[in-house]
Design goal:
Radius of gyration: 26 Å
Bound molecules: uridine-5'-diphosphate, magnesium ion
Shape: elongated
Number of strands: 7
């Protein structure tokens, strides 16, 4: 038996895309193997996505549907697909054909011939709304600083993963998922393939600004407690600054020189106020930061992610 391919396609209100998507995906998988399943995850659509899928599924037994009870969001839909995929390798692709199914073959070859366990799509150039592009770029810069993961601007959810990776991913216990981050964090042999991402031809983006915002926050907080550590760092920094200012003001008082055009005697009470303000400001931040450090550690533990993944075992029995 040849290797089985599972394709996971999350759909939310994609009724105008479904027939096209099904045809093009099937056509491209069939070029590789006849042993495949197409898993459409129907993420609580309010249009007739489900009935369209259902009628297709009557004619094609390779088309499977997982209908979720309500809209759980793209990331959860991907996981619902993963948990039900039985292929030796699993492809994840959007239902709007912005990512080309024509890439399946190249991805499959990287997996089959070069033994890559994760083959992800890399967008050559992001297209779309100028405002969104700027936000994406700021976000990904922040993500890299905070998470220590190399999740660049152009990495897509579009990918092929080995079933071993799938098994590890579905056994993670965390609830707020950032798939691209987890995929990169998990390690193993990974590679990217560049492609042009098309604009959506039919329908509108199903990621509302709020969904994007939640995804962004999940992305950063799921991979790092650095924002919390930053509070403590800031506290120490401002504390040092206030020490420096105290010395500076004492010297100014003693030597009575002008600073920003003002002599010490011209503003009574100023020094006491400023010093109290910055000193207590820094104490506040230090305390908050310390609490943050503890909360951060609790958070890491509560996620109970495994500490490592085994790639291979040799000579064990
Ligand atoms: N999607 C989903 N649930 C949602 C939002 C989106 O399953 O709550 C699906 C959607 O149908 C599409 C994919 O996730 O197949 C990517 O969504 P979209 O194309 O809207 O995102 P964009 O390409 O604009 O980032
Ligand atoms: Mg899209």
């Amino acid at each position: 038996m040849t290797d089985k391919i599972s394709v996971i396609i999350p759909c939310f209100n994609e009724s105008e895309n479904i027939n096209n998507t099904y045809e093009r995906i099937k056509e491209n998988v069939k070029k590789i193997t006849e042993n495949f399943e197409l898993i459409f995850v129907e993420d609580g659509s309010t249009d007739n996505s489900f009935s369209k899928l259902f009628s297709l599924s009557n004619k094609d037994k390779n088309l499977k549907i997982i209908k979720l009870s309500r809209n759980f969001g793209h990331q959860n839909a991907i996981f619902a697909g993963l948990e039900n995929a039985s292929g030796d390798c699993i492809i994840i692709i959007d239902a709007d054909l912005q990512d080309p199914p024509e890439l399946f073959n190249a991805m499959f070859k990287k997996w089959k011939d070069e033994n890559y366990q994760v083959v992800y799509g890399v967008r050559k150039k992001r297209k779309g709304n100028f405002f969104k592009l700027i936000l994406y770029s700021i976000y990904h810069r922040l993500f890299r600083i905070f998470s220590n993961l190399n999740n660049s601007n152009d990495l897509a959810d579009f990918c092929l993963i080995d079933k071993k990776i799938k098994n590890y991913l579905i056994n993670l216990k965390e609830k707020n998922i950032y798939f691209r981050g987890l995929r990169s964090w998990i390690g193993f042999k990974q590679t990217g393939i560049e492609y042009e991402r098309e604009n959506r031809s039919l329908g509108k983006s199903k990621y509302s600004i709020f969904k994007l915002y939640t995804l962004a926050i999940n992305g950063i907080t799921n991979f790092s407690t650095k924002p919390l550590s930053l509070i403590l760092f800031l506290g120490f920094f401002i504390f040092l600054l206030s020490m420096f200012l105290i010395v500076f003001y004492i010297l100014q008082k003693i030597f009575n020189f002008e600073f920003l055009g003002v002599l010490p005697d011209q503003v009574p009470g100023f020094y006491t106020l400023v010093i109290i303000l910055i000193l207590f400001g820094s104490f506040n931040l230090i305390c908050l930061g310390l609490i943050g450090e503890y909360v951060g550690r609790l958070y890491e533990e509560a996620k109970s992610r495994p500490k490592y993944f085994v790639d291979e075992k040799i000579n064990f029995k």
